[in-house]
Amino acid sequence: MDANQLTEEKVKYLRLLAREYPSIPAVCREIINLKAILNLPKGTEHFMSDIHGEYEAFYHIMNNAAGVIKEKVDMIFADRMTPQECKETCTLVYYPIEKIKLLKRQGIINATWYKHNLKNLTELAKFLSSKYTRSKVRKALPSEFSYIIDELLHAQPDEDNNQYIYHEKILDTIIDIDSADVFIEALCRLIKRLAVDHLHIVGDIYDRGPSADRILDLLMTHHSVDIEWGNHDILWMGAACGNEACIANVLRNNMKYDNIEILENAYAISLRSLTLFAEHTYPQMEPMEAALKAISVILFKLEGQIILRHPEYDMEDRLLLDKIDTKHRSVSIDGKEYALNDSYFPTLDLRHAYELSKEEQQVIEDLRAAFINSHRLRQHVKFLYKRGNIYLCYNKNLLFHGCIPMTAEGAFDGMEIDGKFYQGKEYMDYAATVARRAFFGRANQSDVDFMWYLWCGKKSPLSGRTMKTFERTFVADKSTYDEPKNPYYRFYLQEEYCIKILHEFGLDNSISHIINGHTPIKVAKGESPLKANNRLIVIDGGFCRAYQKTTGIAGYTLIYNSHGMRLKAHQPFESVAKVLEENKDIESTSNFFEMEAERVMVKDTDNGKVILERIEDLTWLLFAYRQGIIVAR
Prior knowledge:
Layout: H1 8-20, H2 24-38, E1 45-48, H3 55-64, H4 68-77, H5 83-94, H6 96-105, H7 111-129, H8 134-140, H9 146-153, H10 162-176, H11 180-195, E2 198-201, H12 212-219, E3 225-228, H13 231-240, H14 244-256, H15 261-266, H16 272-281, H17 287-309, E4 324-325, E5 330-333, E6 336-339, H18 358-372, H19 375-387, E7 388-389, E8 391-394, E9 397-400, E10 414-417, E11 420-423, H20 424-440, H21 445-456, H22 469-474, H23 488-491, H24 495-504, E12 513-516, E13 530-531, E14 536-538, H25 548-551, E15 556-561, E16 564-570, H26 576-582, E17 588-595, H27 606-626
Parallel strand pairs: 1-2, 2-3, 3-7, 9-12, 12-14
Antiparallel strand pairs: 1-15, 4-5, 5-6, 8-9, 10-11, 13-14, 15-16, 16-17
Helix pairs in contact: 1-27, 2-27, 4-5, 5-6, 7-10, 7-11, 13-14, 13-19, 13-21, 14-17, 16-17, 20-21
């Protein structure tokens, strides 16, 4: 090292660093620690997508770590336990409180049971902690028992078995003072936390299923998670921004899938104004059918207003309300007449087709106030912004929900906005910036409008298709329902185009992958989630029950650990009751599709790069101390 390389700016930075490491021993200790961390195996990453409100299945896969915990239990205990005993241990880890209550009712639990399971759980936790530093494990320990668990995890054999006796006494005391139940629950929390180092949610937490709010509550407690926004997530985010077309879409989706509880019970959004208006306007219909029709008409008017405000969206073909011919019960689409299945539109003025009636305006104003004032919704949306983005580059992989818009010729596509054309990575970055401004910035109509475009626009990176909501609602001819996809979904089958995309995001295409959600994989028809010579992985396997007939499975978890990558395909989850009573786990099949020639270590990860930079800075600080440039304490 050369003191001449220490610029004034560098010395200023080192003086700040010296506050954290004020002495030569402190610097040396940290350099030794960081260099040791670099040579540990990388933590296990799990990737999941398109959860669509299916809380119970998602919660179970979080509890069983996508089957990883069962694998570890079998690995450690198979030669000491029967298969049934292994299953019992797994169920205890997944649902400790509920399982203990059940076993107590059955009269199974006694001091011997407690001692046996406390030892097994401690051994399992010790095995899972072996790939982490002691410091990291300590940070993960449940606070109420951190000291005791730390002692148990780091028992070492000694000449007179003193430590063995010491730990036996700890376990006996835990049982004697009636703390075994809460201690087991704490150990199980630790095991589940150690099994997965980092979780990626590749979009679409919302819609279809009933409990997206509970999923978000669960994710908000997770120790390490990121979220790549899906089109259904951005729709709710747009609604929280006050975008009226997003609000109408949210209502329509949840009414269509009989899922209004999340609106009324989870987010305290009253539908009273809408339902009263609908009953008055469409008295011949059932109340909920009337409400669905009322919000659909309001939706198409509001979408029309946005399209007319933004010619750059190039979505004039979606302006269909003014093409309705009520006399002949038809609508003109692309110059061709199609029969309507419903032509009763009492609030539609064809001379001003996209203007809301006075009553419709009042309904949407009431709904807008309910959305933007929902405290719990704002909590969840803030979390989506805090932990989320449109895409993420992480450990040499590129994650995004929908697509990178492309032209029919395979070039990057995008939009011209304010005289500048955005495409590829720049377009994704621009979209993310606007999405943040829409929620956190001062009210800007264009930014808020763009949230709707991200939901369903032709070149939206979250949607990737032309939505035919009007046709699916009011047109009888199903041939109009086809929703053309962006050319990306043709090119992503070819490795050269995947490499082109990875290069656009600055990733090493020899070892990098694209990880996608959004499009359910039809496993039942032989479709594979692995595309383009394994360069791209689509992990939408059908968490949502509505898609499971199409996919033939009930979701994927992609697992990337120090040994390589594999996909776990899950069968449908029955119930927590089945797990507790019969130890019936989700059946999952594992596909190891990429094994590493050498084990991946922390030094090979993004965090490893940060640590290496830190080591370099500390090495300079050590040099500055020893040269007297900075005075050590």
